[in-house]
Automatic annotation (TrEMBL):
Residues 1086-1100 have a biased composition (Basic and acidic residues). Residues 491-539 form the Tyrosine-protein kinase ephrin type A/B receptor-like domain. This is Tyrosine-protein kinase ephrin type A/B receptor-like domain-containing protein. PANTHER family: INSULIN-LIKE GROWTH FACTOR BINDING PROTEIN,N-TERMINAL, KERATIN-ASSOCIATED PROTEIN 16-1-LIKE. It comes from Durusdinium trenchii. InterPro entries: Growth_fac_rcpt_cys_sf, Tyr-kin_ephrin_A/B_rcpt-like. Keywords: Membrane, Signal, Transmembrane, Transmembrane helix. Residues 1083-1141 are annotated as: Disordered.
Length: 1141
């Protein structure tokens, strides 16, 4: 900031050529800028009103601020339209001349105008008061009067006054005529006594296009017109709108006629005003109150206004000081003395007060350039002085007039310049470089105190001044131009002097007092939720800890969500798992309200989390496993146990008993190498049951995220009877488990009881059951349920660990391992496992003995004991039934090996099924290609399903993985249904037509007669060949062809009972079931009778076809061929082969 040295101002000289007015003026390069709120350099903005006196004084203050005070300044290009304009302009209102208050756009940005002289705000005191109320921080400051008052009224030209007075004795500059009038005291414009109109022009002489339309000016502003009609009662001159507002009634859209000439517009005296309607309400009230025959109009432009007022014989609104009509010397019309009370109410029929003309600055100028504000506050002028200057402006221009005034009045404005080191509050002493100093002797200027400092008052021999001092520690100041520092609030601190802002206490710290330099730390296991904690009570437990009895204890992260500030009370009142700011039990976990930190893992989807003991689907109890008494459920919500359920259980048990007894009569103990279509259909059902049982076992390892509703029913195939309502019969889990375990003993006892009952004599009917067949039938039931038996038997021995260290059964999460219920279930499970072990052992022994039994006539009937295992498979793969039995326990073992890892369980199950699939695909054990294909494809799809399910974790599953699992599950069911239904369609077709469907054998059927002829051709060829030649021919065959020849020779040896040589026996070594094996007694067969094409066949009293009527089907021929002796050469070979096949 720069100030001119006042001692040089007396020496004046012409400097206009150099762009400066005063000698030793502050050059432009040394002038200072002020800063806006963003710290950017800006010039001091000067607001100029759109009237000559404002323009003159704006030019003068610009010159003084630049050349004397040393500041960059500029006059804003947008001129104010009225005396109210600086009120809004200096407050930063972007559209300060907008007609409506809410359109002025105030408070949107910092002001760019800071100074306004000759501000006619006296007529707008109410608006200024409202502005200070609405915008107290940005409303401009009134620095006092300019030293003169503005005068505004309706003026009449001097020559018109003289003419009226000379001709009629009328004093048109007074609202009443003189006392010499015919009627004492009547109005000079009163049409009943005088014709003042004859001295004026007609309104019709003014072109309408030079006049503003009423609806575009204050004639249509309700705030003005409402007060007018309220106090004048001139409702005839107004139009009431639909919304209750008023607008002036202008018949031609441009002129508003007063009542005195409203009936005859040609008698109206034109009265001009400008802008939006300067002083419009007062003018309208004057014309009504004093009977003036006037038509009020608003010139469309300033130029038209000046032209109309100069060229027309008319009245016009004007004010002083102003130079527009100064050479015409018009006179104001005198109205009754001003009534401040009436004007304050809005009634303006008295004369306008001498308008208060103010010096105004923006509210922030003191903080940016206090010396400028102090300088302006001292400025004063007289009205006559301003009028003389305005007259000079018309001849010399306002810059020259301003410059001459500054040169001629040095002493006058020098007194306005403040002392450089007399700082005011908000400022402080500084040297020429702007660096703060503490003593006046080192200072040359005053600058605004920046952030982090305050303006401190000091006294010296010169007087009072201020310096900028740093705020002490514990305080701060975030604003410039401040006289004090603020104490740091609670929760904050300042550890260094000169702080612009206090620092918030970090998380884990607090401060309960104000004006502090440090924060206190929370205890080690506690922290604060946010910054700026105000007391130790805000120190809460850290994340993963929870407060119990005033102590912070660890919170299990696996099962509980414990954010910062967790407490037992908040945990018990948790509402779901959506509020991450509060503690809750995580989904798939369960805790008791009495001990909410002891968490149990739920393998089902019925533990929604949230508050302790939360269960969905109406469940209750540990891990939400149980339904209330009298209800049951499988995986979904609980349902009521109704009477219908008891009826279904009774019907089911009766059906089971009938099935057990009836099975004896459809079960065949005979091994037949060639499967009939009906037997093929039965085996298709066996494959479907085995695959669904495997799915049921796999579901034990599946978590809630991996399980599939579409395969939920498969749990019935492993006797998981929860969905069947077993809890309605046995409320306790141990009772339910025992009831399932008893299924096998009950079935075996039922079979034994039926066998014994069949021996009771029944007249001439012999219903006695054969023991071998009975045992085989019992084995069949055991074989069907063996996978379920081992799976159920192992259940009590599979325990998984909860987060709290406790163990529960994998399939009954509410049974804690080691409890009394669990012990009882282990006893039951151990018993059923012993039964399963004995059965498996017997099956393995019988399977090993089966080839021997099948090769001896004396033991063939014993083969019926194991026929349920070997009947479905080829003679070479008779052992595959035992392999399938072992697969069931192997699928259940992973749950024992890795009970806490679903992925490990599924991985091991996957390996078991892969090994099983490899063996099955290699051996092709089933008797027909259709069955081999069905088994292979079904297990392969199950493998895919198992592999895809491993892509899910124990809690959640990706949507794409879940959708793929569902698709594979549905595909598996469709596939099993496809194989089963087509097999039975083939069986029915064969029964009806006597022919088999070709595609079910995956090839055309082989005709035995054709094979017989082939054998004859081969036999002839063989007889013609030497032994060495045959050996050479055999050696040329590939491995698979040699293997096929070996199997064919082995089958024919068995069919014809050929006793091979030692070398041949070594070549054909390999155990298998003899194709001709039968449990029938062959003693009645005439071994000496040659078998030809017409040889009779023994009747069959039992077949594997439950629809058989005692006669063997063509494709179920028993190969009961007697021993063939080599010497029987007369037997036709074709007949032998045909019979054998």
């Amino acid at each position: 900031m720069h100030f001119m040295r006042l001692s040089f101002f007396m020496a004046l000289g012409p400097t206009l050529g150099q762009g400066l007015c005063l000698d030793n003026a502050v050059p432009e390069s040394e002038r200072a800028f002020i800063q806006d709120g963003g710290g950017n350099n800006i010039k001091i903005g000067i607001f100029e009103g759109n009237w000559p006196s404002a323009g003159l004084l704006s030019e003068l203050i610009k010159l003084l601020m630049e050349e004397v005070l040393g500041f960059h300044s500029e006059i804003h290009e947008k001129l104010g339209a009225s005396g109210a304009s600086p009120i809004w302009a200096l407050a930063g209102c972007r559209d300060f001349d907008a007609a409506q208050y809410d359109q002025k756009q105030c408070g949107e940005s910092e002001t760019v105008m800071h100074v306004s002289l000759d501000s006619w705000i006296g007529s707008y005191s109410s608006l200024y008061a409202q502005m200070r109320k609405d915008h107290p921080t940005t409303a401009p400051l009134d620095l006092g009067s300019m030293g003169y008052s503005g005068e505004e009224s309706v003026y009449v030209q001097t020559y018109i006054l003289d003419e009226a007075y000379r001709s009629d004795g009328l004093a048109l500059d007074f609202y009443k005529s003189p006392a010499t009038s015919a009627v004492l005291g009547t109005a000079g414009y009163d049409v009943t006594h005088h014709n003042a109109k004859k001295h004026f022009s007609s309104i019709h002489a003014i072109p309408l296009n030079e006049m503003a339309r009423c609806n575009e000016t204050d004639f249509s502003t309700n705030a003005r017109m409402y007060d007018f009609v309220r106090f004048s009662n001139d409702y005839d001159g107004m139009v009431r709108q639909d919304d209750g507002t008023y607008v002036a009634k202008c018949p031609d859209g441009h002129w508003w006629p007063a009542p005195a000439c409203r009936s005859n517009h040609s008698e109206c005296i034109p009265l001009f005003t400008a802008g939006n309607g300067w002083k419009l309400q007062a003018i309208m009230q004057w014309t009504v109150a004093y009977g003036m025959p006037v038509a009020v109009g608003i010139s469309s432009t300033w130029g038209n206004y000046v032209k109309h007022s100069r060229e027309q014989r008319a009245l016009h609104y004007w004010w002083v000081p102003d130079s527009t009509f100064i050479e015409l010397k018009p006179e104001p019309i005198v109205f009754p003395r001003h009534s401040a009370l009436e004007w304050s109410k809005g009634d303006k029929k008295t004369s306008a007060v001498g308008s208060y003309v103010a010096k105004m600055v923006s509210s922030n100028l003191a903080s940016k350039a206090r010396s400028v504000q102090d300088f302006i506050s001292q400025m004063t002028f007289e009205l006559s002085e301003i009028m003389d200057l305005l007259l000079q402006v018309t001849q010399e221009g306002r810059y020259n007039v301003s410059c001459n005034w500054a040169r001629n009045n040095v002493e006058r404005w020098t007194a306005w310049v403040p002392v450089r080191t007399n700082c005011y509050a908000g400022f402080g002493l500084a040297n020429d470089e702007g660096v703060h100093v503490t003593q006046r002797a080192d200072a040359t200027q005053c600058v605004v105190c920046p952030e982090g400092t305050f303006s401190e008052e000091i006294l010296d021999e010169t007087g009072k001044t201020y310096r900028c001092s740093a705020c002490p520690s514990g305080t701060y100041q975030d604003k410039i131009f401040s006289s004090s520092c603020k104490p740091c609030a609670r929760g904050s601190y300042s550890d260094t002097p000169g702080g612009k802002l206090c620092k918030h206490c970090d998380v884990g710290f607090y401060q309960a007092l104000e004006k502090q330099t440090t924060c206190s730390a929370c205890p080690a296991d506690r922290t604060t939720r946010l910054l700026a904690a105000t007391g130790e009570q805000e120190c809460v437990c850290k994340a993963t800890l929870i407060e119990k009895d005033g102590q912070c204890i660890p919170c299990d992260e696996e099962s509980l969500w414990c954010p910062v500030g967790s407490t037992i009370e908040k945990l018990n009142s948790a509402n779901g798992t959506d509020d991450a700011n509060g503690p809750y039990v995580k989904e798939h976990y369960f805790t008791y309200a009495s001990d909410p930190l002891e968490a149990y893992k739920c393998r089902n989807s019925l533990c929604p989390g949230g508050a302790p003991e939360s269960c969905s689907g109406g469940r209750e109890g540990l891990t939400c496993e149980r339904c209330p008494l009298g209800q049951f459920a499988s995986t979904g919500p609980c349902s009521e146990c109704g009477d219908w359920l008891a009826v279904l259980w009774v019907l089911g048990l009766v059906l089971l008993a009938v099935l057990v007894v009836g099975s004896y009569y459809v079960f065949s103990p005979r091994y037949v190498a060639k499967a009939s279509p009906i037997f093929r259909a039965q085996c298709s059902g066996d494959i479907a049951v085995m695959v669904l049982q495997n799915v049921g076992v796999v579901q034990v390892a599946w978590t809630s995220s991996q399980s599939l509703e579409v395969l939920g029913f498969t749990s019935l195939f492993v006797l998981d009877l929860k969905g069947a309502g077993i809890s309605c019969l046995f409320p306790s889990p141990a009772g339910q488990y025992a009831g399932v375990v008893l299924v096998w003993p009950v079935v075996l006892c039922t079979i034994l009881l039926a066998n014994l009952c069949s021996r009771i004599p029944c007249g001439r009917y012999n219903l006695s059951w054969d023991n071998v067949r009975t045992v085989g039938m019992a084995g069949k039931f055991m074989q069907i349920g063996f996978t379920s038996m081992t799976n159920i038997g192992l259940m009590p021995f599979v325990c998984f660990m909860h987060p709290n260290g406790a163990f529960s059964m994998l399939t009954h999460g509410d049974i804690l391992c080691g409890s009394a219920e669990h012990t009882l279930m282990q006893i039951c499970g151990g018993c059923i496992l012993v039964l399963a072990f004995l059965f498996l052992s017997a099956c393995m022994v019988f399977t090993l003995l089966a080839p021997h039994w099948s090769s001896s006539d004396g033991t063939r009937k014993t083969l019926g004991l194991v026929n349920f295992l070997i009947r479905r498979f080829q003679p070479n793969a008779w052992w595959f039934g035992c392999f399938l039995l072992a697969r069931g326990p192997l699928l259940s073992l992973p749950t024992i090996i890795a009970p806490d890892s679903a992925i490990m369980q599924l991985s091991m199950m996957l390996m078991v099924l892969v090994f099983s699939l490899c063996v099955q695909a290699t051996v092709q054990p089933w008797q027909t290609p259709w069955l081999n294909m069905a088994d292979t494809i079904s297990v392969a799809v199950l493998l895919c399903l198992l592999a895809v399910s491993m892509g899910c974790n124990e809690i959640q599953c990706d949507d794409s993985v879940k959708h793929l699992s569902v698709a594979l599950g549905i595909f598996l069911l469709v596939l099993l249904s496809f194989f089963f239904l087509l097999a039975w369609i083939g069986a029915i077709y064969s029964k009806v037509t006597g022919r088999d469907l070709e595609f079910l054998n995956l090839a055309k059927p082989i005709e035995p007669e054709g094979l017989a002829e082939g054998f004859q051709n081969i036999a002839q060829k063989v007889r013609a060949q030497e032994h060495d030649q045959l050996g050479k021919a055999m050696s040329d065959l590939c491995y698979y062809d040699l293997h096929s020849v070996k199997l064919a020779i082995q089958a024919l040896h068995e069919a014809w009972n050929v006793n091979p040589s030692e070398k041949c026996r070594q070549t054909l070594s390999g155990r298998r079931i003899c194709s001709s094996a039968s449990i029938e007694d062959l003693d009645d067969l005439d071994k000496d009778k040659p078998l030809g094409e017409d040889a009779p066949r023994p009747p069959a009293d039992d077949t594997d076809d439950p629809t058989s009527s005692g006669e063997l089907e063509g494709n179920q021929v028993e190969l009961m061929v007697p021993e063939l002796e080599e010497q029987k050469e007369g037997m036709p070979p074709a007949a032998v082969v045909s019979h054998a096949l």
